[in-house]
Amino acid sequence: MPSGNSQIPGLSHLTAKGSLSDLRDTILLLKGAPGSGKSVYCRLFIADGLHEGVKCVYLNSSLTDKQFRNLFSDSHVAANNLKFVNPYLRKSLSVGSSGSGQMDSQMDPKLAQSLQEIRDTLSEWGSDTDTTKENNQEDLSRVYFVIDSLTHLLTIFKEDDVLRFVNALSFALREVEATAIFTLTTASSTFSSSSTSTLSQSSSSDEIVSTRLSSLFDGVLEIRLEENHGKFQRKIKLTSSGGISPKLTWTNFEIDGKGMIKFITDNQSLICSLCKAPILDQPKFYSDLAFHAKHLDIYMKLAGAYGKSRIADVGPSTVVNANFFFVDIVGLSDPSLSVRRQIEKIEVLNNFISSCFAFKKTSEKKVLPTGDGMAVGFMQSPEMPLQLSIELHKRLREYNQRASKEDATDVGVRIGLASGPVFIVNDVNNNQNIWGPGIILARRVMDVGDGGHILIEGGLAESLTSLEDKYRSTIKFLGNYQIKHGQVIKMYSAYSDEFGNPARPVKLN
Asked: Which helix (H) or strand (E) holds 328?
């Protein structure tokens, strides 16, 4: 049954002691970089509400109905307690042709239809509440609402339409005293425990919300991805909300393998000797050192390669945010190819990449050969990975027109682009190298593609489409895709008559 207060996840960890109060009629903005955990936080908010008997609405413009049902397949709730809305999937109807009320004629028809659908649902739920009160039953009128995300809405709809939609929606939510969370993707940035400076500027969607929608929100939740003693940690903070007094410090939290959030209290004393993060589950011990269970094997391998005395040198020395280009040669592992032919293809690819203007003109980059391809991390402009991809495709197209498929001298590639934090580390020869979530994500994106594809992870794609109008005509949303460890990412494809592959990747069918 509903609890006495509308609860956001971890509320007791985010507020000053004794300051909890009713959060009805509260709309919060949840800000964070791609991959920081905003969507997981919202799903937990909805799942908790469903468990308590709260009626919930979840608006997401990138999920299909089937994908949404899979997210909450374990909730075991009545279907009439959970409403899913995707404005992008709504059919474009004439104004006033749907719902019990008159649709907004000044709004995009899909957004107007979605708004009316939400209003009708809230009205229906309100009628149910009146019935329970007449029968002296317990009030089940709590409503939780989520928009995940404002950034994606601003990517696929016109700015003025989204602003009009969100403003009208906020009034509808206030009328039923709903507790709501709207997410916003900010420019990718990682914070060091010894520094408070960001490594990139806010996105244009952040500026839009800050200047034109800020008055709609009662408070702001912010998530940071922070490097601390060689380990990425997530931190969350509530800056303000109604009459609640927020904590003045950040609260650590983790996302486990099942997508659940665990808030870390201050009394955790057992620290992993490899990653330097608190050990919340059963520890493993070796030579009087404590480890996370999954980190002991890594420690043993590192100790064998570097020696125990140099383990500290293997750990991260610097953490930066980078925009990644990850490419490999399609079919290079074909057993019919001779080793000589494989080497020739690798040399052709490397020569073309090194001769591309986008590669040569950028000094702030890190290059990691991968055997059958290459990863390039650009430390500044998010446009560089896509520009390099386009230039490489044009050069390979000219080359392959002269090359022979029969002799297998042609070179086909697939490319994955993503942004995220990475460590700069020293390898066994004391040379600088890169490793971290950003480069791993780019590899995961590339693995989805077929020959000729330029695939882009959602965070980077949305940053590009907000930067230049020209990217909106060449970067197309494909849908959501679940990569390893249950993580779901938005997938985009870049293509035109001169580059890319317009066909849908086989793995997304």
From this structure: strand 318-329
Task: Tell me, yes or no, whether 291 and 327 share the same domain.
Answer: no
Task: Please say which residue of 164, 188, 223 terminates a domain.
Answer: 223
Share of the chain above pLDDT 70, in %: 72
**Cα-Cα-Cα-Cα dihedral sign, residues 493, 499, 503, 507:** negative
Within a domain: 407 = yes
User: CB neighbours (10 Å) of residue 316?
Assistant: 18
Distance of alpha carbon 112 from alpha carbon 121, whole angstroms: 14
List C-alpha distances in Å: 36 to 40, 225, 426.
9, 6, 26
The average pLDDT across 117-139 equals 69
Tell me the whole-structure pTM to 2 decimals.
0.53
Query: What is the end-to-end Cα distance of the chain in Å, rounded?
Result: 41
Length of the chain counted residue by residue: 509
Do the domain assignments include residue 253? Answer: no
Give 191-195 contacts, CB < 8 A, sequence gap 24+: 191/224, 191/225, 191/226, 191/227, 192/226, 192/227, 192/319, 193/226, 193/227, 193/228, 193/229
DSSP state of 244: B
Say if CB 187 and CB 202 are below 8 A apart: yes
Q: Over the stretch 338-381, which tens digit does the pLDDT of each residue have?
A: 888 888 999 999 999 999 999 998 888 888 887 788 899 998 78
Say yes or no: 188 and 101 in one domain: yes
Q: How many domains is the chain partitioned into structurally?
A: 3
Domain boundary among 308, 327, 362: 308
Q: Which of 394, 383, 328 is nearest to 356 (CA)?
A: 394
Structural domain range at position 195: 23-223
Asked if residue 328 and residue 468 are part of one domain, the reply reads: yes
